[in-house]
Amino acid sequence: MSQRTGWQRIARRIRVPLGFVFAAVFLWLARPSCTTLLASLALVAPGVWLRAYAAGYVRKNAELTRTGPYAYTRNPLYLGSMMIAFGFAGAARSAAILVVLALLFAVIYIPTILSEESYLREHFPGFDEYAAAVPRLLPRLTPAATGQTAGAFSRERYLKHREYNAGIGALAIYLALALKWVLAHHR
Predict the structure, then answer these.
(1) pLDDT for residue 44 is more than 80
(2) pTM here?
(3) How many helices (H) and strands (E) does the chain have?
(4) CA dihedral 17, 109, 127, 4 (to 10 degrees)
(5) Is 42 part of a structural domain of the chain?
(6) What is the CATH classification number for the domain harbouring 161?
(7) Residue from 50, 46, 67 nearest 58 by CA
(8) Which among 94, 92, 82 has a CA at the least distance from the CA of 43?
(9) Domain annotation covers residue 175
(10) Residue 88 domain boundaries
(11) Helix (H), strand (E) at residue 160
């Protein structure tokens, strides 16, 4: 049986609502410039792409996905989220946002990842072998030979997981930051 700690259960439940609260504080504290907005695309765009790509492979709770981006990192969805978040932190030009964001990821996502790994270990016998070959977060340079050969990107899975919301959210944040930048220059 899974041995989740109390904090792991809480972290899994609050990560999305806390993200909305952080987004409001982020927009309030952000001081974007044209340069930082453009530079942030170097992390945000690949982060959105990675989340979309990973969502088209994963079959949550049905199988241990080991192909596509999951042959490089066990957590491509979280890696994509971190890329997006830190890209926007750079766009905001705020050290406070960067520090709070790093703390939030440490306090929320580390326990969430560990909890999910506990679940996967319990339900999928090949997890330990997979975990030994594929890093938790920072990706390998080449795909691991995971023994799973079947598996291709599925547009249906991508749509089922509603991953297009990450792209819509990123566009909304860029629009809000651009508006904030424009208003700051027309006072």
Answers:
(1) yes
(2) 0.88
(3) 8, 0
(4) -80
(5) yes
(6) 1.20.120
(7) 67
(8) 82
(9) yes
(10) 6-145+153-185
(11) helix 155-160
**Which amino acid type is present at position 40?**
S
- pLDDT reported for residue 1: 43
d(CA 57, CA 156): 10
Other Cβ atoms closer than 10 A to 111? 20
Decide if 1 is inside a domain. no
* Residue 130 confidence (pLDDT): 96
Q: What is the mean pLDDT of residues 97-109?
A: 90
If one counts the domains in the chain, the total is 1
In this predicted model, what pLDDT tens digit does every residue of 125-169 receive, in sequence order? 999 999 999 999 999 999 998 777 667 899 999 999 999 999 999
Rg (CA), the chain: 18
Per-residue pLDDT, 47: 98
As a residue count, the chain comes to 187
Q: Is the pLDDT of residue 2 over 60?
A: no
DSSP type of residue 138: S
Q: Report the distance separating Cα 146 and Cα 167, nearest Å.
A: 30
